[in-house]
Specification:
By secondary structure, this protein is α/β, with parallel strands linked by helices. It contains 4 helices and 5 strands; from the N terminus they run H-H-E-E-E-H-E-H-E. The protein has helices at 9-16, 26-47, 91-98, 119-131, and strands spanning 68-73, 79-81, 84-86, 108-113, 137-139.
Length: 148
């Protein structure tokens, strides 16, 4: 049963080692990830000007581009281009003035429609966007819902 370890020998080995000089970066990474999530959640809210209730979705968020056209449709049927209200027959003319020149990359178009709107009303606006030359339309939703 003798293993050749003197009583108190392990104490001597510990005393010879220096203090532990490692930095634990796990709490730092946790704090940085929480801050990143907070900024990712609040950044889209800063660009929206008209309050509406968005539908829920599990889709990933799109990266923000500097040149962007935002169209907002409220529950009471009003339509906004960026933050300006648009009269019912005026949307096509306003979109034609924003249409990209030949060969130019069109700006990102985001469509925010209230969940209480009828599907046909949203599709009408999407048709106007397509007719004006905006073929890539991003639908904005809430991204914090579980699968149906």
């Amino acid at each position: 049963m003798a293993l050749g370890i003197a009583p108190g020998g392990s104490r001597r080995r510990r005393a010879r080692r220096g203090a532990m000089a490692e930095i634990n970066v796990t709490p730092l990474v946790d704090v940085m990830l929480v801050l990143l999530i907070i900024f990712m959640v609040t950044a889209p809210l800063l660009t929206a000007g008209v309050p509406i209730e968005l539908p829920d979705s599990r889709a990933n968020a799109l990266p923000q581009q500097p040149k962007e056209i935002a169209i907002t449709m409220t529950a009471d049927g009003r339509t906004y281009l960026d933050r300006d209200a648009v009269a019912p027959g005026e949307l096509a003319d306003r979109l034609a003035s924003l249409a990209p020149a030949d060969g130019a990359k069109p700006p990102l178009v985001t469509l925010r429609a209230d969940r209480a709107l009828a599907y046909g009303e949203v599709v009408e606006v999407m048709g106007e966007l397509n007719h004006a030359g905006f073929n890539s339309i991003s639908l904005v939703t809430n991204g914090s819902v579980q699968a149906p």
